[in-house]
Write a structure and sequence with these properties.
- The complex is a heterodimer of chains A (387) and B (167).
- Chain A is an alpha+beta fold and 387 residues long.
- Chain A is built from 12 helices and 9 strands.
- Chain A has helices at residues 6-21, 34-46, 48-70, 81-92, 104-123, 149-159, 215-224, 229-233, 253-270, 279-286, 334-344, 376-384, and strands spanning 168-171, 187-188, 239-241, 275-276, 298-306, 309-317, 323-330, 357-363, 366-372.
- In chain A, a hairpin with a 5-residue loop joins β6 (309-317) and β7 (323-330).
- In chain A, α1 crosses α3 (48-70) and α2 (34-46) crosses α3.
- Mean pLDDT of chain A is 66; it is low at 20-30, 136-215, 221-255 and 347-355.
- Chain B has 167 residues and is mostly helical.
- Chain B is 81% helix and 0% strand.
- Classes of the chains: A alpha+beta (387), B mainly alpha (167).
- Chain A binds chain B through residues 6-11, 14, 18, 22, 25-30, 57, 60-61, 63-65, 67-68, 70-79, 81, 84-85, 87-88, 91-92, and chain B through 5-6, 9-10, 13-14, 17-18, 21-22, 27, 30-31, 35, 38-40, 42-43, 85-86, 88, 93, 96, 99-100, 102-104, 106-107, 118-119, 121-122, 124-128, 142-143, 145-146, 148-150, 152-153, 156.
Chain lengths: 387, 167
């Protein structure tokens, strides 16, 4: 057997040390090399050179261990294992939930701050009130391009809308004056001072103005307008569309007038004490055939008086489920009635039943006031179905 | 089978402290880290509890070494004022400190691998455990360990000779 190298001798002594000192734990599988170690021991016993080398390795190991012991702590405190366990349990215990607390002074401070902020906001609310600018206003509803002088006027008015805040109205221009009649789209028309052509008609409200650009159309309308209420108000479809703080632009006197008439008549009908009646009874009371819109179910029929004239009220149900109210009565002189109504309403704002669209038509001396939550063109289409 | 950590603690704690002490060179801190390693190990049930403990200790010592770079001086000052240790002769303590410093310098001259293997052996691990900790082959442990011992002894003797020459 050749001489044993230093590494093998270190391993041999390590096995001996750990086998003796650690109860064989460290030797472990190295014990499988027991035969190898037996051979090594026999060789060392016979070989003086390897025996000297083994002594040298043993000295190196001893010196190294001594040096490492010198680097060991002088005193090692070993706490009881239970203490380690207890500390570990404390650490793994879920942390107590943090409860949000606030002292009274802080709470009062916050409350005062919030109250102050709300107060400032309340006081300053007027300074930040939303005001709709002219640029925000949409282009006139309905038509995509001008089809008459009034359309053009409306377009111009939209572009140069004045700053005065008034209301806007929509009107459909009768076909007789070159407009599109019932098919015409609503247009905003600016009110201007009334003209001589409208002299025979009830005087318009002082604040109403007629656009110069529409003078020709209005003149034709005035000439063609008879004294009948139908021609006074026309078959137009006035319906007020309120726009908050909208400038006074695009309002024609005819439209304003028609709307006034419709509202006045509707107001009068609204003040009537109605009582239920049959269709025959209502026709007899009215002195004429009862007007209804065919195709719509009749909800109720009632009779009463509008300013002393026998009147009937028919309520029909629209496909949407909404109610359509038709108040109808005979009138001998529609023009005078309109004038009287206007006088009564001279200093009253046009707020009556503003959420309900109103349409006034006449049929053979019968005034019919249609009221429903519908757009003007829809209400007009319904009115056209009344014979 | 559930690990009997109380038995492992009794057998391994001092070895772990010795091992950690040569990592952090602070006795109190080494004991704190050893206890920390046990606290972290208690919730586990490893096949090799000793190896598991030394893995934790090694990681703790590594983190400690990083932190020590920033805090070593501050901690030393605080501990010098607050530590409550056994009363020892100041002369003995000073001599011990000097010897420890010499060994530390000698250890610092070893390669990282040699030093790690040597310290793990000194902490009581066998070849297989050392191989598991260091990632070396089991057969390489003997070679590394023999080399590390000789280099440590040689380095220490060289340092002593130099100190004598300086005196």
């Amino acid at each position: 057997m050749s001489h044993i190298d230093e590494t093998r001798l270190h391993e041999y002594l390590d096995v001996l040390e750990r086998g003796q000192d650690r109860g064989g734990r460290a030797a472990g599988r190295q014990g499988d090399r027991a035969l190898e170690w037996d051979q090594l021991e026999r060789h060392v016993a016979e070989c003086g050179e390897c025996r000297a080398r083994l002594d040298d390795v043993r000295a190196i190991r001893g010196r190294a261990s001594a040096l490492l012991n010198e680097a060991a702590p002088v005193h090692i405190a070993m706490p009881p294992f239970e203490e380690i366990e207890a500390r570990a349990r404390v650490r793994t215990r879920p942390a107590p939930r943090r409860v949000f607390t606030m002292n009274r002074l802080t709470a009062l401070g916050w409350a005062a701050t919030i109250a102050l902020a709300v107060g400032i906001g309340w006081i300053a609310r007027g300074s930040f009130e939303f005001r709709q600018t002219d640029e925000d206003l949409p282009v006139a509803t309905g038509a995509s391009e001008p089809t008459s002088v009034l359309d053009e006027v409306a377009s111009v008015d939209e572009a140069v809308a004045p700053s005065t805040a008034t209301e806007r109205f929509q009107v459909q221009v009768p076909a007789a004056i070159g407009g599109r009649g019932a098919e015409a789209a609503p247009r905003d028309i600016e009110p201007l001072p009334s003209e001589p052509a409208r002299a025979e008609a009830p005087p318009p409200a002082p604040e109403l103005r007629v656009a110069e650009e529409g003078a020709a159309e209005r003149e034709q309308l005035a000439k063609a307008a008879p004294t009948d209420l139908r021609q006074a108000v026309g078959d137009t479809a006035p319906r007020q569309e309120r726009r908050r703080d909208a400038p006074a632009a695009g309002l024609a006197a005819e439209v304003q007038e028609a709307d006034v008439v419709g509202r006045l008549l509707n107001e009068a009908a609204g003040e009537t004490a109605w009582r239920d009646a049959s269709a025959t009874e209502a026709a007899t009371h009215l002195g004429d055939s009862l007007r209804t819109i065919s195709g719509l179910p009749v909800d109720s029929i009632a009779i009463g008086e509008v300013d002393g004239a026998p009147a009937a009220r028919v309520v029909q149900i629209l496909p949407s489920g909404d109610r359509l109210e038709i108040v109808q009565w005979q009138t001998a002189n529609a023009e005078n009635e309109v004038a009287n109504r206007r006088a009564a309403f001279a200093d009253r704002p046009l707020e009556t039943r503003s959420s309900v669209g109103t349409q006034v038509v006449t049929r053979n001396g019968i005034v019919l006031v249609l009221s429903a939550s519908l757009a003007a063109d829809s209400l007009q289409a319904l009115a056209d179905r009344i014979p | 089978m559930r690990v009997d950590w109380s038995e492992v603690y009794r057998e391994t704690y001092e070895d772990l402290v010795r091992f950690l002490h040569r990592k952090v060179w602070d006795a109190d801190r080494a004991q704190d880290l050893a206890q920390e390693a046990f606290m972290r190990a208690l919730d586990h049930d490893p096949d090799n509890p000793r190896g598991f403990l030394f893995t934790i200790a090694n990681n703790l010592a590594r983190d400690e070494a990083r932190a020590a770079v920033r805090q070593r001086h501050h901690l030393t000052l605080i501990k010098a004022e607050t530590e409550d240790r056994a009363v020892v002769d100041p002369t003995d303590e000073m001599e011990h400190e000097q010897r420890m410093a010499a060994v530390r310098r000698a250890l610092d001259q070893l390669s990282d691998r040699d030093r790690e293997v040597l310290l793990l052996w000194d902490a009581g691990l066998n070849y297989e455990e050392i191989a598991e900790q260091t990632g070396l082959a089991v057969k390489a442990i003997g070679t590394t360990l023999s080399r590390a011992r000789r280099r440590l002894v040689d380095a220490h003797e060289a340092l002593e000779d130099r100190d004598v020459a300086h005196r």
